[in-house]
Amino acid sequence: MSKQQRNALGRGLSALLENANTDITAAEAKPLNSISEIPIGQVQANPFQPRDVFEEEALNELTESIKVHGIIQPITVRKLGYDSYQIISGERRTRAARLAGLTSIPAYIRLADDQGMLEMALIENIQREELNAMEIAFSYKRLLEECSLNQEQLGERVGKKRSTVNNYLRLLKLPDNIQIAIRENEISMGHARAIINIEDQDDQQYLFHKIVEEGLTVRDIENLVRQAQERAVEKKNNLPAKKKIEIPPAFGDMQKTLSEKLGLKIKIKADERGRGSLVIPFKSQQDLKRLIDLL
C-alpha cells in the first residue's frame, strides 16, 4: 500500500493499525508492528465481519498453501481478556489455518473499541480485491450507518471518490434477484450501473434477463437504457395538455359575491355537469367560528 493510499484511509484502518497507542506489542516494549505467535484456539471470529461467504475452492487452495509455506501475512486481532483474542482482519487466513491443522498463528495484537474495530474490519475487507460489488456496497452502508460517517468521510476512509461510493450504494436499490446475480458474478458492476439508471423495476428485470439469456455487453445495455430513456422523454413531451375546466359564469359571480361578503378568497370548483365543491379558507379557530356565525 502506497503512502498516498494510507493517507486516504484517514483515521480508519491505516491510522489504527500503525499507531503504537493501539499496539499491545509496542506497549510491551517490542518494536512497532512486531508479531506474536498466539494459540489458534484462543482466537474468536469477528462478529462485525462483513463477509459471510468464503469460496470453498479458494479456501482449500489457501489451506494447501499454508500447509506448505505457513502463514505469510499475519492476522490482526484485539485482546479481549486473558487468553482470548478477536479477529480484526484475517478471517479467511484463520479458517484456512484451522483446516491446515495449525495450533498457533502469527498475529499483530491491537487495542480497539467495538466501533473502532467495526471500522477497521470493514475497511480492511473493502481493500481486498476479491470482494464482490455487493459485499462492498453492504460494507459501505454499514460504515455510513454504524460508524456515523457521511459519504465524503467514507470516501476519504477507503480512498475512493464520493461518486464511486455512491455508485456502489445505488446497487442496494436494485431488486433482490439482481443483487444476488451481481454477488454471484452472473452480471458485472457495469451492467448493474446501467440497469439502475432505469427507475421502473419491470424494465430493470427485462434488461437483467436480456443480459443473462443473450449475453449482452455493458455497451449493449447502456444503448438499450438510453433508448428507453429517450422514448420516455418523447412520450412525456407528446402528452396532450390537460383541458382547463372553466366554471360556468353564474358560478363565477357567486364566487365573487361570497368572497366579498366573507372577506376571503372563496373558490368554487365545478365540472361540466355543475357538480363540484365550495372551498372556504380560514386562518384560525376564531376565524372559523366567525364564518359559521355568518353562514
List the secondary-structure elements in sequence, H or E: HHHEEHEEHEHHHHHHHHHEEH
Average pLDDT for all residues: 75
**Main sheet: strands, sense, barrel:** 5 strands, mixed
According to CATH, the fold-level topology of the largest domain is Conserved hypothetical protein from pyrococcus furiosus pfu- 392566-001, ParB domain
Number of strands: 7
Radius of gyration: 31 Å
Strand content: 5-15%
> Low-confidence runs (pLDDT<50, min 5 residues)?
1-23, 25-33
Shape category: elongated
Annotation field: number of helices = 15
Task: List descriptors.
alpha/beta, 295 residues, Conserved hypothetical protein from pyrococcus furiosus pfu- 392566-001, ParB domain, five-stranded mixed beta sheet, 3 domains, disordered N terminus, 12% strand
